[in-house]
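Working notes for the structural subgroup meeting. M.R. asked for a predicted model of this chain before we commit to crystallization trials. I am recording the input and output together here so anyone reviewing the notebook later can reproduce the run.

Input as submitted:
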Amino acid sequence: MTQGPVSGSHSPALRLRDLRKAYKDVRAVDGLDLDVAIGECFGLLGPNGAGKTTTIEICEGLNQPDAGVVEVLGLTWAKSADLLRRRIGVSLQETQFAEKLTVEETVGLFRSFYGTGPTVARLLEQVQLADKRRGRVGQLSGGQRQRLALAIALVGEPELLFLDEPTTGLDPQSRRQLWDLMAGFRSEGRTVILTTHYMEEAERLCDRVAIVDRGRIIAQGTPRALISDLGAEQVIEIAVATNDGKAAGAGQSPIPPG
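Returned structure, recorded in token form:
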């Protein structure tokens, strides 16, 4: 049975206070404050260089802040790193796999690092890669590799899932497949924090979003409220049919009135 999030805790899933990180003269994160509730899907939006990836890497324990408070599931990396690694899942912006291993071998390797969790077969079914289980990783398409990265992030049944630009560079159909997978994870009551360039992605998946620029949050709220504030309440959606008549995917774009 899938393990749900830990109950009985009043701590947020993520708490950041006055978070700061600089690289020489560049302030990647500049006094950022943020709270994400347990069970919430929260999105960080912003252009390249806004500080999204640096922020999420600090939350994942992959980067050290210069200053500030970072609490993940009520714990800190300084005191509870081993426990946190067992309770979170991470899908990086780019994940390098051994190209010669099969999909099944790759998931099995990462699954072996955890004492409990779903079987390899169940994970592959969950991310729609069961038919590719004996195929080599080097033969996967971009969308299939992203689904494999998501399977790796789920091997330990995490309570909190970090996704760094999970659909960047994918075609519309692959993006929609990943959206469905992320929505399924979230429907189990777990917490998702993702970075993205796409407002339509945030609108589809997120309860709330924060727009980040130059290491600071410049706007925060529900996707619909932010779109309304920007005066872009109308959305055009385009679906393209393939030769067999099936929808290949769709794209959305907010259209300002007038």
